[in-house]
Write a structure and sequence with these properties.
Strand 5 and strand 6 form a beta hairpin. Helix content is 42%, strand content 14%. With 184 residues, it is α/β, with parallel strands linked by helices. It has a six-stranded mixed β-sheet, sandwiched between helices. It has a single domain, classed as Uracil-DNA Glycosylase, subunit E (3-Layer(aba) Sandwich). The structure holds uracil. Uracil (URA) binds next to loops.
Length: 184
C-alpha cells in the first residue's frame, strides 16, 4: 500500500483489540503526506477520541507551541500516535494493544518516509527501538537512535512537561538536535 488515505480507509473500523469497544473513533494522524519530521505520541486522549485528530487537547497546545517556535507546521511535519484508539481513562496502553496496532504504525511510517522521527515519550520510543517502557527514559534523550535507517530523537511527552515545566528547556535542546540532524 502506498497511499496514506487508503491505509486510513482500511483500518477505520479496526476491531483487532479491546480498545475498539470503548473508542469513539480511531485517531490516525494529521499533517503533510510528505513530511520532513514525524512526531509520535502515545495514544489519543478524550479530546482526540471525540475529534478523530491527534494532539488537539492540552498536550496538543503545548506541542503546537514547540512546533511554532521552530517554524515548523503541518505543511512539513506529520503527527501520529503509537496506538490509534483511546485507552479508557487514559491508562497506559497494554503490550497486546500496542502489538495489535503495530502493523498500522509500521505501514504508516513506510508510506510517509520522513527524514527524521521525534518520539514524544517512552511509549512512542518503545515502538521504534528496542527500549522497555520500564527503563529510564531520560537516558534516551540527547542521542540519535535509528528506526529502519531513519534517525530518531527522543524528547519528553508534552503531558510530562505540563506536569514538570522546569524540564521545558530540555525539550528545546532535543528540538535543536532534531533540526540539526535533519538539516545535515
Ligand atoms: N497524548 C498523546 O500521546 N497523543 C495524543 O494524540 C494526545 C495526547
Amino acid at each position: 500500500m502506498t497511499d496514506i488515505n487508503k491505509l486510513y480507509d482500511s483500518i477505520a473500523y479496526c476491531n483487532k483489540c479491546i480498545l475498539s469497544k470503548t473508542r469513539n473513533t480511531i485517531v490516525f494522524g494529521k499533517g503533510s503526506q510528505n513530511p520532513d519530521i514525524v512526531f509520535i505520541g502515545e495514544a489519543p486522549g478524550s479530546d482526540e477520541d471525540k475529534l478523530g485528530l491527534p494532539f488537539v487537547g492540552r498536550s496538543g497546545k503545548l506541542l503546537d507551541k514547540w512546533i511554532n517556535k521552530y517554524n515548523l507546521s503541518l505543511d512539513n511535519i506529520y503527527i501520529m500516535n503509537a496506538i490509534k484508539c483511546r485507552p479508557p481513562k487514559n491508562r497506559d496502553p497494554l503490550p497486546e494493544e500496542k502489538n495489535a496496532c503495530r502493523e498500522y504504525f509500521e505501514k504508516q511510517l513506510e508510506i510517509l518516509k520522513p527524514k527524521i522521527i521525534c518520539a514524544l515519550g517512552k511509549h512512542a520510543l518503545s515502538n521504534l527501538i528496542d527500549f522497555s517502557v520500564s527503563s529510564k527514559y531520560s537516558d534516551m534523550r540527547g542521542a540519535l537512535h535509528t528506526y529502519k535507517n531513519i534517525p530518531v530523537v527522543a524528547t519528553y511527552h508534552p503531558a510530562f512537561i505540563l506536569r514538570s515545566p522546569q524540564s521545558a528547556e530540555k525539550v528545546y535542546d532535543d528540538f535543536e538536535l532534531l533540526l540539526k540532524t535533519m538539516n545535515n
